[in-house]
Amino acid sequence: MPSSTAVGHLDADCFYVSAERVRDHFLHGKAVGVLGNQGACVIAKSYEMKHAGVKTGMPIWDALRLCPQGVYVKRDFRWYEVLSRRMLDVVRAFSPRVEYYSIDEFFFEVSAGINLREMAERMRDAMLREVGVPVTVGIARTKTLAKLVSDTAKPFGALALLDRAAEVALLERLEVTEVSGIASRRAARLEPHGIRSCLDLARADRLLVRRLLTITGEALWYELNGEAVLPFYTERPPHKMLSRGGSLGGTVGQPERLYAWLARNVERLVEELEFHMVRTGALSVYIQHKDGSDGFARRMLPAHTDRFDLLMEAARSALARAWSAERPAIRMHVAASQLRRSGFVQLGLFDAPPERVEAVAKLKREVNAEIGRFALRSGATLPLADVYRDEAQSYDICDVRGKICF
Fold first, then answer.
1. Choosing from 105, 109, 167, 272, which is the catalytic residue?
2. Quick one: how far is CA 248 from the chain centroid?
């Protein structure tokens, strides 16, 4: 990246809660928790609820004990995407190059010659005025530094920091785990070498960092030292893998209900394969059991496909190996890998004639587009009637397309 540019990072403050407050002013100033997993746990909380001790991922019964006066609402990712797209428009009004990093985070490039602190404040204020969502904006020399700046400026902050002395002061007071990409396991590798703060990492020997954290850690080393090496994506790179799944909304031990979840996730996966115009050569099923153990199985496909019937057959076989029948399951993920564009796919020699299957798939798409996403679905999903009745289950954060990550 040329030295004449700087990188900004805009991050919403308590985005899910802020989104709920946009459409319900009653929630302003109150302790608010947003619930996921069919209302079983808190996936986001306001600063007021955070001060009461509620943590992200906490079961609702524990949250109620710590914050009985709180207001708990069910998540609505459709609404969150609406506001996320509006936020993207606002950021693009300030910068010609924007990376849609996640549903509530954006990186953007700006000229280093302008008053960057003033620009950060104007962007923050415009977002609140036009979208109603409070955000924090940080501007620095690299993406990694910009994210650290915005994280430390929360909530509703606006800060530009390009001076190396100011960068050093910031890095010195932050633990190394504050760097995006360095969690506890990587920090444990660094600790024996005396690398505990962000500044320790920036001043460490580059080759040592590469040996401990591979080329990914080396890139972070460069970024912390003000050299921008991480790619800037104005469009999402092609997928190497597509996955659908998540919590099962409780413990599932009945084979027919688990199979219903499998069919649901395969149908959602087919949606994505069709949208991105790719076919998969391998299908994987991951299961997490209630006791903490997990299972994984992968099936290679005879030919690359996006057909529900063929993928379901492979998924059924993988599930049989991944799931321990005597252990209830709590999570499931179905992943497609070895993706190829449709025009670069060799048809299987022994595949059944596709005409009837493709006609059914086309009808299914058309009816669901007209009436509702799951108006037509596999009969195997009937044991999940309770899930399909819940409108909140018809949409998930991973269905927000175009962003780089969750």
1. 105
2. 18
pLDDT in tens, 29-51: 999 999 986 788 999 999 999 99
pTM for this entry? 0.85
Tell me, yes or no, if 274 is annotated catalytic.
no
pLDDT at 2 over 90: no
In tens, the pLDDT along 104-135 reads 999 999 987 789 999 999 999 999 999 999 99
3-state secondary structure the chain: CCCCEEEEEEEECCHHHHHHHHHCHHHCCCCEEEEECCCCEEEEECHHHHHCCCCCCCEHHHHHHHCCCCEEEECCHHHHHHHHHHHHHHHHHHCCCEEEEECCEEEEEEECCCCHHHHHHHHHHHHHHHCCCCEEEEEECCHHHHHHHHHHHCCCCEEECCCHHHHHHHHHCCEHHHCCCCCHHHHHHHHHHCCCEHHHHHHCCHHHHHHHHHHHHHHHHHHHCCCCCCCCCCCCCCCCEEEEEEEEEEEECCHHHHHHHHHHHHHHHHHHHHHHCEEEEEEEEEEEECCCCEEEEEEEEEEEECCHHHHHHHHHHHHHHHCCCCCCEEEEEEEEECCEEHHHCCCCCCCCCHHHHHHHHHHHHHHHHHHCCCCCCCHHHHHHHHHHHCHHHHCCHHHCCCCCCC
Residue pair 356/309 in contact (Cβ under 8 Å)? The answer is no
Q: Which CATH architecture has domain 163-235?
A: Orthogonal Bundle (1.10)
* One-letter amino acid for residue 142 of the chain: T
- Chain position carrying tokens 């602190």: 117
Q: Measured between alpha carbons, how far is 365 from 367 in angstroms, rounded to an integer?
A: 6
CA–CA distance, 34 with 75 (Å, rounded to integer): 6
CATH class of 241-399: alpha beta
The average pLDDT across 59-74 equals 96
Domain borders along the chain are 1-160, 163-235, 241-399
Q: At what angle do helices 143-153 and 206-224 cross, to 10 degrees?
A: 60
Residue 73 in tokens = 């609402």
Task: Tell me the CATH architecture of domain 1-160.
Answer: 2-Layer Sandwich (3.30)
